[in-house]
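Narrative summary of target 7.
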Amino acid sequence: MAKQITKVNPEASSIQATARYIRMSPHKVRRVLDQIRGRSYREALILLEFMPYRACEPVLKVLRSAVANAEHNDGLDPATLVVSRAYADQGPSLKRFRPRAQGRVYQIRKPTCHITVAVAPALAET
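Modeled conformation, tokenized:
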């Protein structure tokens, strides 16, 4: 499937939504975000629905929230929206310990991430 990127209107401001402290590695979430960045809202929904990654669920929630913000706060039509920015930052790691042989202990780090998705209206094609 060829990646079709839609151009974003530079004059229009982007509307964003953020999910914080998601119990998932940012590295694994970025794999999903790279696929939807630059795509229209409908294309991104279809991709997230059928990709086989666990990270798709929280990304889908954040995307729907960003579109709802654009619809409610700015009165934009969801059909015209494009994913302008999508990134995952590292959050704090939960530190756990695993007992090992001879009284030793190994540290286990459970990573979290902050997911941000911004949508903006696409350029009108002429």
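The chain has a mean pLDDT of 90.
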